[in-house]
Amino acid sequence: MAIHSDALTHVAPLWDGGWLRMARHSPSPNWGPRPIGACIDLLVVHSISLPPGVYGGPQVEQLFTNQLDWDAHPYFDSIRGMEVSAHFFLRRDGELVQFVDADARAWHAGASEWRGRCNCNDDSIGIELEGLEGGDFEEAQYQRLGELCRALQARYPVQHIAGHEHIAPGRKRDPGPGFDWVRFQGDLGWNPASFPPVPGPRPSTT
Known about the structure:
The chain contains 5 helices and 12 strands. By secondary structure, it is an alpha/beta fold. The protein starts with 7 loop residues before the first helix and ends in an 18-residue tail after the last helix.
C-alpha cells in the first residue's frame, strides 16, 4: 500500500513494512495477497481462547501457526484441520502478537459483509482478543487495543471498526456483550459513525 511521503516520518518508527514493531512477531502460513486496489479501512475485533475459557497458554498461537496438537484436548477435535489466522492477538496481560503482515490478507473473517462490502478479509485487519465471547476483557487489553488502533490508523485509511458478530451476524457472536464498545469508542475518541451501533447500558452485576 502506498504511503504519502509526508507521513513517512510519523509512520516509520512504528512499522517495518506491514509489521508493527511494538508486537512480537510469530509468522503464520495462513494468509494470501489482498485483491488489487483493496482499501484497508476496516478493523475487525474478535475474541478467542483455547480451550474455551482457558487463558495464558500457547494454543491460540499454535492454532494460527498450524502447530496445534489436535489430540491435546477433546475440544480441539471440533476444529481439527482448521487453517485460520488473524493479523494480531492481544493476550489478557496486554502482550501483542502479530501473525500476518498487515499489508496482506489474513484468514479471520470468513463469510462476512460490512459497509456494503462482502468478503471482509479482503480489506480488513483482524484483531483477536484473548477472551470468551460474552466474557469481560482486561484493562491491559483495552489500553493496548487503543494503542494498536492508533498505530493502524497512522498507516492505513481506517474508517470503520466492527466486531466479528457484526460482520457475520447469526454465524459469529464474538467478542460478545462483555466487550465494552462504549468504553472503547470513548478511549479512541473517533467519529461514532466509525463504530457499530452502540448497545444499550450494560446490565448491572450487583
